[in-house]
Specification:
Length: 207
């Protein structure tokens, strides 16, 4: 509660559309670790978990094999962050599954965010695949879901754990034999962290 109020004050100071910047500012303040901030860190730990989320295509089919499909998943991630007021710390879109680290000012928002992200992607991608890929249309019933139901979420309580998951995320395409280096995969946040490039999804490190 206190944190949320502080956040809105900060947003006021830094301008309405600067939730991202204010998150960064909070992260910088937390890093400094002054006494005044110890109380806030406790609240941060209790209420504002970042979560490592994973969801997969139905029956682990490679429904995100087409670059356009991965692009759609990313565009909807960016869009959702805008409308739900969340922060993405990192992500990867693989041919058959997606990982992301997400942070919201209210924990309950993650569920709504995921629901929207997955269902919008499902609608758009089914339409795309039916139009573009005959194989998909032939082998798929209209009612068949695009995603496996649910998603898996792990709370990230420490910076160390978050960094570990971020590296894990970025190495997915390397482990999968898709590219030699994490930065060669265009559908992850690796380029942002390693080369400072924009990847089309707003990113922020909140730890
Ligand atoms: Ni994976």
């Amino acid at each position: 509660m206190i944190f949320r109020r502080r956040l809105s004050i900060r947003s006021g100071v830094f301008g309405k559309s600067s939730v991202l910047r204010s998150n960064k500012r909070i992260a910088a303040l937390l890093r400094r670790g002054s006494n005044a901030l110890m109380a806030k860190r406790r609240i941060y730990d209790e209420e504002l978990h970042a979560q490592f989320v994973t969801f997969s295509c139905y029956r682990r089919r490679r429904l995100l094999d087409h670059p356009h499909s991965r692009q759609v998943v990313m565009a909807l991630l960016a869009d959702g962050l805008n409308s739900h007021g969340g922060t993405c710390c990192g992500f990867v879109v693989m041919p058959d599954h997606v990982h992301a680290i997400l942070w919201f000012t209210e924990t309950a928002r993650l569920g709504r965010f995921m629901q929207t992200w997955k269902s919008r992607a499902s609608r758009q991608l089914k339409r795309f695949l039916r139009g573009q890929m005959r194989e998909y249309a032939k082998s798929t019933e209209r009612k068949q879901p695009f995603w496996q139901p649910k998603y898996y979420a792990i709370n990230l309580y420490t910076q160390k754990k978050a960094k570990e998951k971020l590296d894990y995320i970025h190495l997915n395409p390397v482990r999968g034999g898709l590219v030699r280096q994490a930065c060669d995969w265009r559908w992850s946040s690796a380029r942002y962290y390693e080369q400072g490039r924009s990847v089309g999804v707003p990113l922020g490190w909140v730890f």
